[in-house]
C-alpha cells in the first residue's frame, strides 16, 4: 500500500520544502490543483527537482485536450498525471496513450462520477493505472467520506490500482487502510498538521501495521 502527500494550499517553494521534510515517509508527492492554477507547471518542475526517491504527481484534473496536457505535465517532471473520470472516453484514451508512451502513469479521479461501478469498469478496460475515489473539499464540508465509494470501486475493477482521497487524517487512516486500497492520498491531514513530518510518519506506521 502506497502513501501520497497532496499539497494544495502553499506556494511552490513552500510545497517543495514540505515535500523534502516528509519524503522519507511517503511514496508519492502531489502538486495539487490549486497550486497548478496559481503557479502553473513550474510548480511541478520545482518539486521534481527538489525530491529524490519519490514519484511526483501533477493533479491537473484534466477534462479535455488530454494527450497534450499529459505530455506537458510529463515535460515538467510529472511521473503520474490526473484526469477526471467524467471526461470523454476519447480523452481518457489519449491520456493513457500519452502517459504510457513516456513510461508514466495516469490516475483517474472519480470526483462527481454518479455511477461509480459502471464508470470504474469502463476506466479499468481503458487502461487507467489508478482509479481514485475522491470526496472533494465541497462534499467533505457536507460530512461525506470516501469509504463507501472505495468499497464499490474495489469490488468491480480487475487491472487498475485503487486510490482513495478526501479528508483522510492520521486519526482516520486506519479505517481506510483496513479496506486495503493500493494508494492512500492524504492532504491537509499531513500538510496542516502542527508537525507534518510526525504526521507523515504516523500515517506510514499505521498503514504498515506498526
Ligand atoms: O484533490 C484534492 C482536492 O480536490 C485534494 O488534494 C485531496 O482531496 C486530498 O486532500 P485532503 O486530504 O485535504 O482532502
TrEMBL record:
SUPFAM superfamilies: Ribulose-phoshate binding barrel (SSF51366). Residues 2-203 form the Orotidine 5'-phosphate decarboxylase domain. It comes from the Bacteria. GO terms for molecular function: 3-dehydro-L-gulonate-6-phosphate decarboxylase activity; hexulose-6-phosphate synthase activity; orotidine-5'-phosphate decarboxylase activity. SMART domains: OMPdecase. Its EC number is 4.1.2.43. The keyword Transcription does not apply. GO terms for biological process: 'de novo' pyrimidine nucleobase biosynthetic process; formaldehyde assimilation via ribulose monophosphate cycle; L-ascorbic acid catabolic process; one-carbon metabolic process. Pathway: One-carbon metabolism; formaldehyde assimilation via RuMP pathway; D-fructose 6-phosphate from D-ribulose 5-phosphate and formaldehyde: step 1/2. Gene3D superfamilies: Aldolase class I. InterPro entries: 3-hexulose-6-phosphate_synth (IPR017553), Aldolase_TIM (IPR013785), HPS/KGPDC (IPR041710), OMPdeCOase_dom (IPR001754), RibuloseP-bd_barrel (IPR011060). Keywords: Carbohydrate metabolism, Lyase, One-carbon metabolism. The keyword Lyase applies. It catalyses: D-ribulose 5-phosphate + formaldehyde = D-arabino-hex-3-ulose 6-phosphate. Signal peptide: none annotated. NCBIfam families: RuMP_HxlA. Catalyzes the condensation of ribulose 5-phosphate with formaldehyde to form 3-hexulose 6-phosphate. Belongs to the HPS/KGPDC family. HPS subfamily. This is 3-hexulose-6-phosphate synthase. It comes from Mammaliicoccus vitulinus. The gene is hxlA.
